[in-house]
Amino acid sequence: TRPAIPFLDLITPHAELQPELTAAFQEALASAAFVGGPAVENFEREFAAFCDARFCVGVANGTAALRFALAAAGVAPGDTVLTVPNTFIATTEAITQVGAVPEFVDIEEQTYNIDPVKLREHLLTQCIWDSNSGRRISRRTGRPVTAVAPVHLYGQMADMDAILEIAAEHRLLVVEDACQAHGAEYFSRKDNAWKKAGSVGRAAAFSFYPGKNLGACGEAGAVTTQDENIAQKIRMARDHGQAKKYYHDMEGDNGRLDAIQAGILRIKLRHLADWNERRRECGARYRELLAPLGKNIVLPIEPLWSRGVYHLYVIRHADREALQAHLAAGGVGTAIHYPIPRHLQKAYKGLGYAKGDFPVSEKVAPEILSLPMFAQLRPDQQERVAEGLFAFSRRKQPSSALSSTYAAAGD
Ligand SMILES: *Cc1c(COP(=O)(O)O)cnc(C)c1O
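A: This is the predicted complex of the input protein with pyridoxal-5'-phosphate.
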């Protein structure tokens, strides 16, 4: 049974748009253009415009988008690519799939995104300078570090000015994992302008998995870039390396976006700015409602340079498991993004990391909890979520149950 207040409501937005979505499906049936065709090209043009990017190439899903973006930007087999331990596994899967090795840099505690100070420190202390290639070589892997993949986690962009500056100093390609950040903005102090996710790196990957801010009714993804050459490479790669049917310049993949999904995405894209705005309003309302909980709970922080799109609303609490169970008992659905950092996952045992290697990621992983967040979330539902949190805090004895430093400080 669904909780009274679900973590994510995917039914309501589809009910609201049902006639339009059905029409897109019927159009595909009538034309039998199922793969490629005008729906895909139109969506690509419209999504590129939405992201302030010159090009968009629709692909099969977000993981494929990351893989194509990394390869087309120039990551080669044997390279090392830097990213964070606190992300969805697709980020590191895509790095491995292009033949590179992921290497981690810890996150900032306030934004949960890659920490530029640690990124620079990592390049200077964990990598050696190779004057022949003009590259940093990772001490861990013995391989050249050629790229960094910042993840705009939970809908908030990473500190891109700093990352781009460090990347330029150390000749790194920057490929954005924007799979949670459709429409997120970053104020570049360097350019004195707001920049959209997907417009600042060499290339950026988006996922349109149904639960994302812009979601298909199935699997879909896209790469955005300002570089025509990268866009062209991905158009080839997603279609078996052919520019012309059955003339293959290279081996590629079957990684195309299908036309029914593109048609559906075109319709939803018209609502995305409004949905993101409603998510931001929900974020502001949570902040107001939950502020009286004080230091017993850590709320999301939005730096002045960030306009996030609240893909997730992630709080922290020292007694996360009990809080989650308490909320569930009261009919409030929650989720955890993500319970175990990448470097401690069984899948990455081979990378040789150990507990203690990334203290911030490890500190927050057992405390984070994603509250209900979606554009159609109502104020009365948010009030009930807040009541659940208040009831929990009244039930607990804060000083005995809370262990971490910020929580023990009390209020
Ligand atoms: C969803 C997601 C992906 C992968 O997208 P899929 O479409 O599921 O393949 C990659 N990175 C992050 C951070 C994501 O949230």
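The first strand starts at residue 55 and ends at 59. The pocket of pyridoxal-5'-phosphate is lined by residues 61-63, 87-88, 90-91, 151, 177, 179-180, 207, 209, 221 (CB under 6 Å).
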